[in-house]
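Quick question, first post here. What does this chain look like in 3D?
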Amino acid sequence: MKYYIVNRNATLNPGFHHEVHTREHADQLGVRDRIDLGWFSNEIEAVANAKRYYSDADGCKTCCPRAHRG
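> Answer (accepted):
Ran it through. Tokens below.
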């Protein structure tokens, strides 16, 4: 299981949506304005949870490739 976050600042993402990252990757990127989503067994579950906050939530192509839609 991994810990996931969603970026609150959509303008920092290439598609101008709210990206879901693993906590480790978000820390590497320096994402500070975020919502902690918690522990999930996969990125698809994490993105589904993030959609409770942002309907445009999408997985990061690097750390959440199975949930990345572009």
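The chain has one domain: 2-67.
The first helix runs from residue 23 to 29.
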